[in-house]
Amino acid sequence: FKSVRLLDIIIDLDGFVSFFIISAFHLSYNMLLNQLRCEEGDPENLLRNSFFQFQADRAIPDLEKQIKSLEKERNSMVIEEEESLKNYYNLIFQHKSLKKDICEIVFTPKYCLPFLLPNRAVCLDCTNDDEEQQSFSIEDQDTWGVIMKFNKVKSLFEDDDNRRPEDANYTVDVLTRCMVSKDGVGKKKVKAVPIKERGEPVVVTVPLSQIKSLSSAIMNIPKDLVPLEARENALKKVSELLSRHPDGIPLDPEVDMKIKSSSYKKTVRRLEALENLFEKHKIAKSPLITEKLKVLHMKEELTAKIKSLKKTVRSSTTLAFKDELKARKRVLRRLGYTNSDNVVELKGKVACEISSAEELTLTELMFSGVFKDAKVEELVSLLSCFVWRERLPDAAKPREELDLLFIQLQDTARRVAELQLDCKVEIDVENFVQSFRPDIMEAVYAWAKGSKFFEVMKIVRVFEGSLIRAIRRMEEVLQQLIVAAKSIGETQLEAKLEEAVSKIKRDIVFAASLYL
């Protein structure tokens, strides 16, 4: 079976392909408010009769069958000294977790950037991620290499120009020993391997999280590493360093890197205490310890699957989205859209009419007076942030008056998102705020001012169709806002919004066909 969304086209008469339709039903504040506004409206009844709920109910027998099968498989696994082995197994994963926490502190840009110097020897983690080769040793597999340079990673959502260097993300180019192969489609795959194993000297890009330690040794290697011989000689020098100093002369995080973090010291103490437990643990010297740990790992994975399936069954037997419904009702009450009896208030009546943009942020802006104070062209420009989601790398910063409006929008969006998070609605506050893009504000402002379409296209570098679609969507949002303003008796705002429609609804953007 192929899985598709409910709204996807699923007809394939020639191939007789069967499709399993997955409901894309989700709750929205507009839907919830319109249900509450109706005298006979019942959001819970809507959820109960949704296709999503039907699918959840129908899946229960198969889930229960899977649970029984997995429980039978788990119970067939008998392990000697299981309790003691389980304790040792948990210690291993605690040890890995603590080491990871220490690396995350040490290799934050704030501390490590000054030490990511070219030609410095570096230790990298090259542990195999394959489930079948899961490591149950407290010593991870590592390799060594030489730093070439570090690179700042550009973010898709955030404004990189305004970020401090220590708050950005970085990768490091490292010359190290690698196994080079090709996958089924001929794509080149490069995997770092221990420096003494067979492989090619290759420069790979790794995240900071893959670095285990930095050496105090700076290698004397040539600048031109294009020839294979030069790269081999560079890694030979690293091997010579390790033969004389097996630990690679690592930088001390506290002494050399000046890390004074209390969380770092606390984590190091916990790791040292844990390592003492390993030495005293009676199961550590048990025969076939690795094989036993592998079987226990499989058993623990089955237990986790069973637990997950049981949770799915429990949630399926209750009303779908019930917790989300409660959380969203709580948001509406706290924002003043409904009262304690779930009766829709004035703000709620406005949000009821908005379905083509983010209704809460838009309503909050309307009631804060932003729409009344802004000029018509500025208002239209502000609405472009609600319909444009694409980030344009070379977009010009909006003029001062538009930028001030955008800052007000961001502040309102952040307040709305943080309140939702406080009410237990699952939401990423930063992503929500960054989803409002100012990239076409200037272009839309010029269009509302009466500029020709070819003139507007010189302001912003996007496809003509993308800009036309955005302006058409803005007109749709404006029509909904007009209805909303009329429903609460805001005649002045209604007239302003109608003027905004007349300013953008013209010429080629709203032509019935480009070929007429």
Summarize this, please?
The protein is an alpha+beta fold and 516 residues long. Helix content is 51%, strand content 12%.
Give a verbal description of the structure.
- The radius of gyration is 30 Å and the shape is globular.
- It is built from 19 helices and 8 strands.
- It has helices at 29-37, 43-48, 51-75, 82-106, 109-112, 228-244, 262-280, 289-317, 322-335, 346-352, 359-367, 370-373, 376-387, 400-422, 429-434, 441-448, 453-459, 464-487, 491-504, and strands at residues 2-5, 19-22, 120-125, 142-153, 169-182, 188-192, 200-207, 211-218.
- With 516 residues, it is α+β, with helices and mostly antiparallel strands.
- Strands 3, 4, 5, 6, 7 and 8 form a 6-stranded antiparallel sheet that branches. It has a two-stranded parallel sheet with strand order 1-2.
> Uncertain segments of ≥5 residues (pLDDT<50)?
1-13
H/E series: EEHHHHHEEEEEEHHHHHHHHHHHHHH
pLDDT averaged residue by residue: 84
- Number of strand segments: 8
The assembly state of the depicted protein chains is single chain
Largest sheet: 6 strands, antiparallel
Rg is 30 Å
- Overall helicity: 40-55%
